[in-house]
Specification:
The protein starts with a helix and ends with a helix. About 65% of the residues lie in helices and about 15% in strands. It folds into three domains: about 30 residues; about 70 residues, Signal recognition particle alu RNA binding heterodimer, srp9/1 (2-Layer Sandwich); about 50 residues. The chain is built from seven helices and three strands; from the N terminus they run ααααβααββα. Strand 2 and strand 3 form a beta hairpin. The chain is an alpha+beta fold and about 160 residues long. A three-stranded antiparallel sheet has the order 1-2-3.
């Protein structure tokens, strides 16, 4: 009788987990953009301050080959307040690029700071490991409790039968 209730709860938990997973997938798909969509909505062309202060030479990376000199990084509060470099105003992140034809170094706004993403990944992995360990210990302790109860029940049955 107890096993039937446990299996009912497991089925309910599985259904809820599956439903939540599907909901998360649907919500995330609404916020994801393909590279074509991202290029069509370039922040450098739509942000009012960037539109005003960036010259076509500052956006040379849009029309010619370039190399990333410094990867995406956070702007300091001073850089944002002074608008230097001006791309810090848009998203608070900057990336130094060098246009190969014009030999000009300029900053552009970027989306992903690698070291922050890596830190988030390892935080997630750590939390996942912690909760996995806690779950395993809970199952282990519960199994020991059930084994002990079963052992006591068997001892009582043997003592009553002797």
């Amino acid at each position: 009788m107890l096993e039937g209730k446990i299996h009912d709860h497991q089925g309910t938990s599985s259904t809820i987990g599956t439903g939540l997973s599907i909901l998360v997938i649907i919500l995330e798909s609404r916020h994801l953009h393909t590279p074509d969509e991202a290029e069509a909505h370039d922040i450098h062309d739509h942000h009012p301050i960037l539109k005003e202060l960036l010259s076509p030479d500052d956006k040379c990376w849009k029309t010619e080959p370039f190399q990333v000199v410094e990867p995406c990084d956070l702007c300091s509060e001073i850089e944002i307040a002074n608008k230097s470099p001006v791309v810090c105003v848009a998203k608070g992140k900057k990336e130094l690029v060098e246009c190969t034809t014009a030999m000009k170094r300029t900053y552009r706004s970027c989306d992903v700071v690698p070291w922050i993403e890596e830190r988030r990944f390892w935080t997630f992995e750590g939390l996942l490991s912690f909760f996995g360990f806690c779950s395993a210990m809970t199952v282990f302790v519960r199994q020991k409790q059930l084994d002990h109860r079963m052992y006591q029940r068997i001892q009582r049955q043997i003592a009553a039968g002797v």
